[in-house]
């Protein structure tokens, strides 16, 4: 095919890597890959379905997007057309307080299914930690116990993704996200950081957002620096319904429809607390998230932006 004919041909594909001023597109028809230049603030992200004609890139409508908020209040889309958020945690290093609950809420608010991937089952601290995680989350999310070091139970994670899921790995620095990807995708060889003996944290080494095809089906996105969540897509009224452990209690259970589960009479959530079905620590996390959302919601510009994104 002549170059002129090739440049006039519209080809559909998916963005599998983003380099700032260029994206790598995997074409649906041939499986070929091509790099296409884009403006730095073009808005294209890994997972976007696109139509390419020469050097022109046309993004197709997204059915989902996962976003985060930076320290200045700016919103950044991490990945598009995802259906699963893989939250990687471990006993060493422990996640920051409230991280797991925040990640689950953010996932559900974005329309994704959260799963917990508890890594480093080979460590001596693992079993006690894993039992705590199961007590807190087994009724709310699917939990996988794995070891990137030994490969233990990673076949179960592969089988899950063979159902056709596209997920993104998130988690604090040092939990082994890239190490798990290296196990799931042979010959990938993502760089992994050394663990500091003083802080027990790995240096984050992934620098480019990338989408990877799993053998047998499914896709995984590795995104750099995704260590924390701003509650970009969550409203105050949705928080309790998305918060793990509350979801089955808040639906039509509280006396007042606008109950925020602080100290209102007839509150189903505070009943859970009194019955010790949810810990004081996790209830404190809920209250912190609620206060954060109330502060955000007091900003008309942000509230308008969130409502516009949800349409």
From TrEMBL:
Residues annotated to bind Zn(2+): 254, 259, 261, 267
- One Pfam family matching this protein: RsgA_GTPase
Quote the subunit structure annotation. Answer: Monomer. Associates with 30S ribosomal subunit, binds 16S rRNA.
Keyword Cytoplasm annotated: yes
**UniProt GO BP:** ribosomal small subunit biogenesis
Q: What is this protein called?
A: Small ribosomal subunit biogenesis GTPase RsgA
Relate the protein's function as given in its record.
Answer: One of several proteins that assist in the late maturation steps of the functional core of the 30S ribosomal subunit. Helps release RbfA from mature subunits. May play a role in the assembly of ribosomal proteins into the subunit. Circularly permuted GTPase that catalyzes slow GTP hydrolysis, GTPase activity is stimulated by the 30S ribosomal subunit.
Q: Which PANTHER family match?
A: SMALL RIBOSOMAL SUBUNIT BIOGENESIS GTPASE RSGA (PTHR32120), SMALL RIBOSOMAL SUBUNIT BIOGENESIS GTPASE RSGA 1, MITOCHONDRIAL-RELATED (PTHR32120:SF11)
């Amino acid at each position: 095919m002549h170059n002129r004919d090739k440049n006039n041909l519209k080809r559909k594909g998916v963005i599998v890597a983003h380099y700032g001023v260029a994206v790598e597109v995997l074409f649906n028809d041939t499986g070929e890959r091509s790099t296409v230049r884009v403006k730095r603030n073009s808005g294209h992200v890994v997972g976007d379905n696109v139509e390419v004609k020469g050097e022109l890139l046309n993004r197709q409508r997204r059915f989902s997007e996962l976003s985060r908020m930076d320290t200045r209040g700016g919103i950044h889309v991490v990945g598009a057309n995802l259906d699963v958020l893989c939250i990687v945690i471990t006993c060493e290093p422990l996640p920051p307080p409230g991280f797991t609950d925040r990640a689950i809420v953010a996932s559900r608010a974005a329309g994704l299914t959260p799963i917990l991937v508890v890594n480093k089952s080979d460590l001596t601290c693992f079993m006690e930690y894993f039992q705590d995680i199961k007590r807190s989350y087994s009724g709310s999310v699917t939990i996988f116990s794995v070891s990137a070091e030994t490969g233990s139970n990673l076949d179960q994670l592969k089988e899950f993704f063979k159902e056709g899921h596209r997920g993104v790995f998130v988690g604090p620095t040092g939990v082994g996200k890239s190490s798990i990807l290296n196990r799931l995708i042979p010959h990938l060889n993502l760089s992994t950081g050394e663990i500091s003996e003083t802080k027990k944290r790995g240096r984050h080494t992934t620098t480019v957002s990338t989408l990877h095809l799993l053998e047998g089906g499914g896709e995984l996105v590795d995104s750099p620096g995704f260590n924390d969540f701003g509650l970009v897509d969550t409203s105050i009224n949705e928080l309790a319904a998305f918060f793990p452990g509350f979801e089955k209690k808040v639906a039509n259970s509280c006396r007042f429809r606008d109950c925020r589960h602080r100290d209102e009479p007839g509150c189903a959530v505070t009943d859970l607390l009194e019955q010790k079905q949810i810990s004081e620590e996790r209830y404190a996390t809920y209250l912190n998230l609620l206060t954060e959302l109330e502060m955000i919601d007091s900003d008309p510009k942000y509230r308008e932006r969130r409502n516009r994104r949800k349409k």
